[in-house]
Design goal:
By secondary structure, the protein is α+β, with helices and mostly antiparallel strands. It has 3 helices and 5 strands; from the N terminus they run ααβββββα. It has one domain: IHF-like DNA-binding proteins (HU Protein, Chain A). Helix 1 crosses helix 2.
Length: 94
């Protein structure tokens, strides 16, 4: 399911106009993105959590040339599946 499909399902379930449904979904995703950009954790109980991992700088190696290269410190977003979602997905497979 992509964002447009999600907006359509949300619109049908809530009875909102497509414009209002899109605004709500956009607001939700924007606030999640803002929280992660600020280093906060986003947790949706029973579904998942998103968090940011920080990596220190290190000396890496180019696999093609074998040449050493400096890799800057970075932050990357991560997703962790919730217990209820794991159980639901596993149940659907059997």
């Amino acid at each position: 399911m992509n964002k447009a499909e999600f907006i359509d399902v949300f619109r049908k379930e809530t009875g909102l106009s497509k414009t209002k449904a899109k605004e709500v979904v956009e607001l939700f995703f924007n606030e999640m993105s803002n929280a992660l950009a600020n280093g906060d954790r986003v947790e949706i109980r029973g579904l998942c959590s998103f968090f940011v991992k920080k990596y220190k700088a290190y000396t890496g190696r180019n696999p093609k040339t074998g040449e050493s290269t400096y890799v800057k410190p970075k932050k990357l977003p991560f997703f962790k599946c919730g217990k209820k979602l794991k159980e639901r997905v596993d149940y659907k497979q059997t």
